[in-house]
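Bug #77: duplicate submission created two jobs. Keeping one. Sequence:
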Amino acid sequence: MRAGTKHGSSRIIRSSWVGKRSVARPGRRENGSGYLEHAIELRGVHKTFGPKVAVKELDLVIPTGSLCGFIGPNGAGKTTTIRMIMSIIFPDRGELTVLGRSSAVESKDRIGYLPEERGVYRKMKVGQFLVYLGRLKGMPSAGLEGKVKDWLARVGLGDCFRKRCEELSKGMQQKVQFISAVLHEPDLIILDEPFSGLDPINRRLLRDLINEQHGAGRTVIFSTHAMFEAEQLCERVFMINRGEKVLDGTLAEIWEKYDPRCLFVETIGSTDDAMLASVSSIPGVREAAAEPRGIDVRLLHETDPGPVMSAIAGRVPARRVEIKRPNLEDIFIDLVGGSAEAIRAELADLHGGDTTAAIQEASA
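Kept job's structure:
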């Protein structure tokens, strides 16, 4: 389409060293001319709202059949990017294709979409609502009601077929909207903040359902500011901050590129400011942050962790010093710069509380 018209720490010391459809489904031939390699392609996509740059010169390719997380803080540009992909809004400049077409509108029956703004037809009965949306997506009437009932049973809403949507809780309505996004077995599924507001049990259910859709060969994209969700689910991630892409690749590629950048020091006894200052002064250390069981140490780029580990062992009383694979939150902090403490606190606030507890929920 062409445009036109956690464990956050309370103390941190920074190192002085820091300076069904007309088009084939996935895997089938696209109009007899070969395979559709990429579900989505963006080239130089740029979007502003007045003086604010929401998305800046974005290049992005999502391979067909992949499970991709769009991650970044609130306001980073995730939803704006998704809305441009969905042709809800249009870029100021740049080009994009969706399922091989110049607009999502041309492939609308092959796309399932859960928007960030939740909404159902509140006066309609749940079953009637889902049957209606299924018919809009081109599903035949025969057997449709049965499919709706099966899906409702799968998400624990088997007794809600004849209830009005307004009788359901927000979490229950969210599950109904998820069904509406996947009922017609789309080739491409886009979920904007799908885990927001769900309790741990339903978060796990939704993760299982997303994995199931991906396992069926569908391309699945979901956005989240909770980076551990992407780490739990995705095979690739696209990270955006202030409208600019800061990371794009498979998790395997990311771990290979950023390992090892972090160390963990399990201290004997409590960790004090003198220990943090001592560790942060070691050449190659970017910063040292107090954690409940010791010290998290972030290294400068190109630093050999071996000498740093030896130096730490000689300076602080430690049970062990080990290389720690960074999580996506660590990598985000590394890429955007600034205080790890402040960024972790912001991400925890976005999640609505303690990041560590949320990670434990996601792992349950």
